[in-house]
Structure formats: structure tokens, C-alpha cells
Amino acid sequence: MDERRARRPGGRSARVQAAVHEAVTGLVGERGYGNFTVGEVAARAGVADSSVYRRWGSLEALLTDVMLTRLNARSPMPDTGSIAGDLRAYAAAVAREITGPDGPALLQLLLALHSAGEQGIRARDNLLADRSQQLQSMLDRAQERGETTPPIDDVLDHVLAPLYIRVLFNAGPLTPTYVDNLVDRLL
Amino acid sequence: MDERRARRPGGRSARVQAAVHEAVTGLVGERGYGNFTVGEVAARAGVADSSVYRRWGSLEALLTDVMLTRLNARSPMPDTGSIAGDLRAYAAAVAREITGPDGPALLQLLLALHSAGEQGIRARDNLLADRSQQLQSMLDRAQERGETTPPIDDVLDHVLAPLYIRVLFNAGPLTPTYVDNLVDRLL
Q: What is the domain class of B58-187 according to CATH?
């Protein structure tokens, strides 16, 4: 297989990406993070190992690309016109996601990357930097509208952290009231 | 090996427990949660599989027993005479633990149990119930002294959750000032 000769690189590139992402999602579901290799992803996707390395660089970078694509599709940063509305909508989306069928998959990935050496740490930091930047843009928009906004660290500490830890500790359901209260308390 | 014939059941029992706990700690360090069996623990500890099942019932219950023993040894609930002192000391101990060599091992275990079916969920709930009870006793002592105390859920949401998530998200160091601020903000 020589992908450089593909006649429609954009189309082929998109197909490779879709096949590789789907292979990762399948392997994560069946075995969990940390229990499969780039070779297994490539075989399942029907592409060469070298294609995966060329495009993503490492398994860790590939895993975070898949996660980021999913997060951006399922929990995009809202733009409701007010910081309260934005944070409530964002917190509700996160709550829905982590109590859904995939559960706290982001935490699972972060923990796997946490113990995956330097490449894991770098991939983790890139993933979080990307989402943080989006969250920061949401806060910046509110400030430009003249609203008072909390620091981004406080959103992490007092809205996102409780949601994740509640699911992991099975410490009560994430009711809409509970989720809204986290935001109201912060604001 | 017939352990019921051991002449000093207490001594033998304690030795079995120590050997099994040590085997678990070793296997967790080498392979991570979810990547070894009761048979492998038993072989490493030099005991029969049946001894492990008889005493612990399941791998999940054994894993939580090891974790609970460690938590109780390394992060016992403090008794400083004031709720502020207790919560600060407790938060500092948790921060020290999760930034130490074993890292967020409790989160790793909870995530592994989260996806380990009914026995995993039961073991997880037992582990957390035990620690929650200890934390509640700490809060109750303060109330008996006439202090105003936060609900236990708020300690989880706004002190413990940020500590864990900050480590996992690599969102800044857990300085003593940061840790104390989480407590002060809650109180």
C-alpha cells in the first residue's frame, strides 16, 4: 500500500482517519486503554503501521486525537449569550457524557496517559490545552460582553472536578439541580 | 497446603494477609489494575487460590482491602481539635499521597472497579463507605464540639475532587496554599 500515490489524498486521508478512529474506539471498548498497540489499531483499520505513525506520531497522540474529536462533537463549548447559561449548558453536557454508555472515558484515558511516560504526558497536556483554550474562549466572550467571569481554574476545580469525582465515587446522581447548583455556587 | 490445620491461625492468618497484600501491591505496580488474576496473586504470595477466595471473596474485594489498608495507614483521619485543622491536615495528606510515587492509585482502582461488573461496583461502594464513615466521624466530632461543619458531600466536591482532578489534568501544583484555600473556601 503506497498512500502517497492515492489520487484523492483528501478523500483517502479522511477515510484513513475514520477507519483508524473507529478501530481505536472498538479496541478501547473491548480491552480498555493500555491494552493494545499501534500494530493492532492499524491491522483493524486496514492500514499500514507506518501510516498511523506518520500521521499521529504515537499511540498516545492518536488516543488523544480520538478523544478530542469525540469531546468536540459531543460536548462543544456552548454560546448561549450569558456566562451562567454557557456554564450550565457545558456542565450539563459533561454530566450527560460521563453518565452515558462510555462513562468516564476521559478520566480513563487521562489515567492511562498519566502512567505512559513522556509521550503520554505530552499527549495528555495537548488534549487538555486544547479543551482549556476552548473553555477560556467561552470565558473571554463573556468578559467582552461585560460579564464577571470566574477564573478557568475555578471552573475546573468546582464544576468539572465534582462531576467527575461524583461519578467515580458513586456519590449521588448528577441531577440537573445539582449540576446547576455547582455553577450558581461558582458564580 | 491445608491452612485450617495451621497451629497458630492468628499468626498464619496475618502472614497470609501480608503476603497476599504484598503480592497485590507488586502486581499493581508492574501491570496495573485489571491485568492480573487471583491465581497470579496466590502464586506470588505462595498460597492456594482457595485461601484468597475464602478470605476475600473476589479479586475486587481483595484490591479494595489492600487500598483501604494503605489509605488508613497513610492518610488516617486527623483529630486536631478543630474542623479547620482536621480538614487542612486531611487535604494535605491526600495531596501528599496523590502526588507521591504511587500517584492517583485510588482513582486508578476506582476506574478499574467501575468497569468490573457487579462485584467491582460492590467493592468500590464498600471501600468508599468505609472512608466516608471515617470522614463523617471527623465532622461529627466537630459538631459535638459546637463547630459549624460542611456537609460531607461538599468536602468531596470542593476539597477532594479538585485535588484529584488537578493531578489528573496536570492543572498546577498542589501547593500548601492552594490546599488550605480549598478548605478555607469551603468553611
A: mainly alpha
